[in-house]
Amino acid sequence: MNATRRYPRPTKEQLAAAVDKLLPDVIAPGLDVLFVGINPGLWSAATGWHFARPGNRFWPALHRGGFTPRQLHPSEQDELLTLGLGSTNMVARATARADELTAAELVAGAAELTGKVERYRPRWVAVVGVTAYRIGFARPKAGFGPQPEPLGGARLWVLPNPSGLNAHFTPETLGAAFAELRAAVSA
């Protein structure tokens, strides 16, 4: 399937109905990398696909970083498992914007994520969003890249948020950040 294939856009009604909806994880035991989003956006909750909003740069960054042989469309998310990859979120409930989440939700989500990592035992966990990571894990000075502390027995890495709203990172710099993680995973 071509990553540029067009899919019907969710309607305003479908997006409104997606508020607080949960998005199933794409996860299996023993993954090489479990990617952790902040929480599902309404577009993702409406479609059932992680990082589904057309402006989200997760899928292009994943490909540019060398994790996938081609750019996958969000509807192909289950192919991640065949590549030793998975996807989940720190907070399960869908919102229009991540800044609608409370600090308490991020802290609770971090605890739930830790349990999930202990249960599924990925080698690496990659959180995509430094601010959510800082708040959820009480690491106010954390930066991008490898983190000194493990998470539930997995090595931990923080990546930039691939949302189209994060203008600080271009598609090229996001791809480079994902490539750094890919090199560490392969080492």
UniProtKB/TrEMBL annotation:
Q: Does Translocase count among this protein's keywords?
A: no
User: Which residue ranges does the record assign to the Uracil-DNA glycosylase-like domain?
Assistant: 24-182
- Which chain positions lie within coiled-coil regions? none
Q: Which GO terms describe its biological process?
A: base-excision repair, AP site formation
Task: Alphabetically list the UniProt keywords.
Answer: DNA damage, DNA repair, Hydrolase
Task: Offer an example of a GO molecular function term for this protein.
Answer: pyrimidine-specific mismatch base pair DNA N-glycosylase activity
The record's listing under NCBIfam families reads:
PRK10201.1
This chain belongs to the protein called G/U mismatch-specific uracil-DNA glycosylase
Q: Give the organism the record lists.
A: Micromonospora viridifaciens
